[in-house]
From TrEMBL:
<dbReference type="InterPro" id="IPR052701">
    <property type="entry name" value="GAG_Ulvan_Degrading_Sulfatases"/>
</dbReference>
<comment type="similarity">
    <text>Belongs to the sulfatase family.</text>
</comment>
<dbReference type="InterPro" id="IPR011989">
    <property type="entry name" value="ARM-like"/>
</dbReference>
<dbReference type="InterPro" id="IPR016024">
    <property type="entry name" value="ARM-type_fold"/>
</dbReference>
<protein>
    <submittedName>
        <fullName>Sulfatase</fullName>
    </submittedName>
</protein>
<dbReference type="Pfam" id="PF13646">
    <property type="entry name" value="HEAT_2"/>
</dbReference>
<dbReference type="GO" id="GO:0016787">
    <property type="term" value="F:hydrolase activity"/>
</dbReference>
<dbReference type="Pfam" id="PF00884">
    <property type="entry name" value="Sulfatase"/>
</dbReference>
<keyword id="KW-0378">Hydrolase</keyword>
<dbReference type="InterPro" id="IPR024607">
    <property type="entry name" value="Sulfatase_CS"/>
</dbReference>
<dbReference type="InterPro" id="IPR017850">
    <property type="entry name" value="Alkaline_phosphatase_core_sf"/>
</dbReference>
<feature type="domain" description="Sulfatase N-terminal">
    <location>
        <begin position="35"/>
        <end position="302"/>
    </location>
</feature>
<dbReference type="InterPro" id="IPR000917">
    <property type="entry name" value="Sulfatase_N"/>
</dbReference>
Length: 627
């Protein structure tokens, strides 16, 4: 080969090398150009922050973040408690649709449902979670590169984009269980919602809560400072929000603004300003919900949102049109059973109570560790409360309607006012249609869910002929009317071939109480029903008709069941029976003793809600016996 050829070959090799290096550099730049996403998630706090107008709060770091980003005025968690809300967050699916709405359960989801960070990881993102999961279903650890108390985006490869979550637990409700002797916020100056009495304990708990919010704000500031010092602030979209409202009684766990409305601030760096929903310091009134958060992150980083997800992106190239409503749900909360659904537009909140005979303030052992709860209940029992403060301790109305713009504390129920009839009827219909559209699985009694989940997902079960939701909803709505004129229809459905329909027909008789006497013969027959949830409910109905002698054996027998939630259901009924449940005390003690000695093979080692309910009931019955 001559010198000219050699020279040309060398030029050719150099050119190819430069092209390859350039290509690699472009790809590296493209990788780096994808935005990082940082989630800062606080626990158990409503928008009690300075940037949301709370002048008593000490939250300078979050307030500053709000001036740099966009503040959402209408952001809502899916359920007013962590686990079902986090289930919704991580899947982009409503927990009420997946069958994961009841607090701390591990019912499986369909195989096609992936925790959304997995899609980011597959797209080249480093995913880290520090450290809480609590997804209320079987874990999918492959969603994360790391998930631990030490997890951080700092462990990623050079130039690798990240999705990082930091959970701040200092504002969690457990942090008010023990009163602190010295507080930064003055209990005498703290603002208290009108449904709370100003007991000494209530004032102290509220002030201590504001102290914890201040500490949480300091932690937010530290995380933002670390991002700045790492030189990543200009490449990172920051979300700050809370996992549910809270934290004092009638907020966390309850279907009101105080339980469902959460703070949300999103800061988008200037280089990604095209992705921002507004200018820095602006406020957005668009309704956004937890089911939308995962799809929104995927949209921001240009990863295709899976078609099965129910959430809709509210940012990014795949942004969807705003929805009319934010949907909320309440199922079993720890050891207490309830069922509530709610929809919220920009002006009104509609609430449908499917178990209106149960009071709001059912005893929950964990919630009652707060001194404020004990003082509130004592004040009610002493007759020291006004109507707004007393309502928590009384049976619920079937429907509730609140104008949130004039009544942010949701204390003035408009459901019975003629001038709001049109609004009520529309939202009632829209709520029903939404339940049908999403195949809401929450109407299946949990003793049934517990068994269904052993062989498959509840989501898939709810989409078979075994779950005729339209018929079930019709029955549940009749059941909750408190109208004796529907008794004949309910009685007919006591013989329905579907156990969920039978369950709701029985529930209607429970709610009617003595007015359901004409159905007693059929209710007696259901004490032998093959479905445990139905025969336990029938025992409650029979007890309500004054025949505890037939009801108590069924309830006592349920305590020996291998079904955790059959036991929880029976214990809830025995709790509501009060002193009339005393003949069952030996059976309750036997169960509690076996549980305490850990010799009972029927126990589900993952959950202790039956044990909590049994211990509370024993204490109550022993106290009444002494009187």
């Amino acid at each position: 080969m001559n010198k000219v050829s050699m020279k040309n070959m060398s030029k050719y090799i150099i050119a190819i090398t430069l092209l390859l290096l350039g290509s690699i550099k472009i790809k590296a730049q493209q990788t780096q150009e994808r935005p990082n996403i940082l989630w800062i998630v606080s626990e158990d706090n409503s928008p009690l922050l300075g940037c949301y107008g709370d002048k008593f709060a000490t939250t300078p770091n979050i307030d500053k973040l709000a001036t740099q980003g966009v503040l959402y005025e209408n952001a809502f968690c899916a359920a007013p408690v962590c686990a079902p809300s986090r289930s919704t967050l991580i899947t982009g699916m409503l927990a009420s649709s997946l069958g994961t709405e009841n607090m701390r359960s591990e019912y499986p989801v369909p195989g096609f449902v992936k925790f959304f960070p997995r899609y980011l990881r597959e797209a080249g993102y480093y995913t880290s979670n520090n450290a809480k999961k609590d997804y209320n279903t079987i874990d999918q650890p492959e969603a994360w590169d790391e998930s631990s108390g030490k997890a951080t985006y700092k462990n990623r490869k050079p130039g690798q984009p990240f999705f990082a979550v930091f959970n701040l637990q200092v504002s969690h409700e457990s942090n008010i269980h023990k009163p602190l002797p010295s507080l930064k916020h003055d209990p005498e100056k703290v603002t208290i919602p009108p449904y709370h009495p100003r007991t000494a304990e209530m004032k102290h708990d509220w002030a201590q809560y504001y102290d914890k919010l201040q500490t949480m704000d300091e932690q937010v500031g530290q995380l933002l400072q670390e991002l700045e010092e790492a030189g990543l602030a200009d490449n990172t979209i920051v979300f700050y929000y809370s996992d549910n409202g809270g934290v004092l009684g009638r907020s966390k766990r309850f279907i009101y603004e105080s339980g469902l409305n959460v703070p949300l601030i999103i800061r988008v760096p200037e280089k990604y300003s095209a992705l921002a929903p507004g200018k820095p310091g602006s406020r957005i009134d668009r309704l956004v919900s937890f089911k939308d958060f995962g799809p929104t992150v995927l949209s921001l980083v240009n990863v295709k949102v899976p078609a099965y997800m129910q959430g809709k992106p509210f940012l990014g190239k795949q942004q969807a049109a705003p929805e009319e409503y934010a949907f909320g749900f309440r199922g079993r909360m720890d050891e207490r059973i309830d069922l509530v659904r709610s929809i919220r537009d920009k002006k009104y909140r509609y609430v449908r109570n499917y178990m209106p005979h149960k009071i709001y303030g059912q005893y929950i052992s964990y919630l009652w560790q707060a001194p404020s709860m004990v003082s509130w209940q004592k004040a009610y029992q002493a007759g020291q409360l006004n109507q707004d403060q007393s309502r928590f301790w009384e049976p619920k109305p079937t429907e509730e309607l609140y104008d949130v713009t004039t009544d942010p504390h949701n204390i003035n129920n408009l459901a019975g006012k003629p001038e709001y009839k049109q609004v009520l009827e529309k939202m009632r219909t829209d709520n029903r249609n939404y339940l049908l559209q999403t195949k809401d699985a929450g109407f299946i009694p949990e003793a049934m869910l517990y068994e269904i989940a052993k062989t498959g997902s509840i989501y898939e079960y709810a989409r078979t002929e075994k779950y005729p939701l339209a018929n079930i909803l019709e029955t549940a709505e009749m059941a909750t009317t408190r109208d004796a004129s529907v008794l004949n229809k309910l009685t007919e459905r006591l013989n329905h071939q579907n156990p969920v329909v039978r369950y709701w027909a029985v529930t209607g008789c429970i709610i009617l109480g003595p007015k359901a006497a004409a159905a007693k013969a059929k209710l007696n027959a259901l004490l032998q029903d093959p479905e445990p949830a139905v025969r336990i409910a029938a025992a409650e109905a029979i007890s309500g008709l004054g025949d505890e002698t037939k009801a108590l054996p069924v309830l006592s027998q349920a305590l020996a069941s291998n079904n955790l939630h059959a036991r929880v259901q029976a214990l809830n009924i025995l709790e509501n029976m009060g002193a009339k449940a005393r003949p069952a005390l030996p059976a309750i003690r036997q169960f509690a003793s076996l549980a305490k000695n850990d010799k009972n093979s029927i126990l589900d080692k993952r959950f202790d809600y039956d044990i909590r309910a049994a211990q509370a009931l024993i204490s109550k019955l022993e106290a009444t016996a002494q009187k």
